[in-house]
Amino acid sequence: MTTSNGLREFLTSRRAQIDPATVGLPPSPVQRRGRGLRREEVAALAGVSVDYYARLEQGRIGNISDQVLTAIEDALRLDPLERQHLRSLVGNPTAQQRRSTPVGRPKVRVGLRTFVEAIDPVPALLQGPRMEILAWNRAATILLTDFGAMPARDRNVARWLFLDSSNRVRYPDWEEVAAPTVAALRAARNPGRPDEALEKLVGELSVASEEFARYWATYRLFKHGHGTKRIFHPTVGVMSLNYETFDIPDSGGQFLSTYTADVGSPAAEKLSILMSWGNSPDETTPVEPDSVQSEAEHREP
């Protein structure tokens, strides 16, 4: 069973990204009406009939063999994350994709909350599968913002990034941060398992932010791993910081993000000054009491 609208949107967006010349196709004698590959060109590259591929884009194909699916993935030059997403769209998800997204605001294990606090002065944020900000430490408050002062509803990285104008200053390369954030939300959306909270978030941000809507329409997929971000703080200026993202096992899709600087770098000196400057003991409320998951709850089957 396929989700036809999502499948059509995804396949159309992927073939639109491919320059025909890069796959060895000669210049077309007929002027192209749009970017990228035509349906018949994808079909030829995948070794399937044009009618078959057209019906696939329309969601009118039943079971698809792994061989054919792989050929289409290769023709469209999909990366591993995109291949996983396509298989969920055509109803052939992996075991990881079959896991349901928790309903409501995820709970945080006591030990995980303690860990986030304990690694201070390394700034750390714990996020849920929809980028809910679930826990943070003093260092994250100093570096980024006072998440404890936000209404709980607003504690979401995507909502904060697009609706708080101060982030245009906080992140000098704002677009390079914003686009992957939307792509990561796209990747978190399981087509086979509707998520009302995620759909509501996407709908609200699409109306409130033209940029969010534009990024969402590109259908890019992304999974946070590691990299570098430039962050501005009025006390010390711009710092180039390394971020690392860690998936938390048995947490319903929670992940931890940390920020560090290269040893001996100007950014390391600035970050050290900043952490020393903001050394107030009770600046944050790292996690809401009703969102804490007890050890007993965690041990339930």
TrEMBL record:
Protein name: Transcriptional regulator with XRE-family HTH domain
Gene3D superfamilies: 3.30.450.180, lambda repressor-like DNA-binding domains
InterPro entries recorded: Cro/C1-type_HTH, Lambda_DNA-bd_dom_sf, MLTR_LBD
Family annotation (Pfam families): HTH_31, MLTR_LBD
Species this chain originates from: Promicromonospora sukumoe
MF term (GO), any: DNA binding
PROSITE patterns with a match to the protein in the record: HTH_CROC1
Domain of life of the organism encoding this protein: Bacteria
Cross-referenced SUPFAM superfamilies: lambda repressor-like DNA-binding domains (SSF47413)
Region (Disordered): 276-301
HTH cro/C1-type domain mapped to chain residues: 32-83
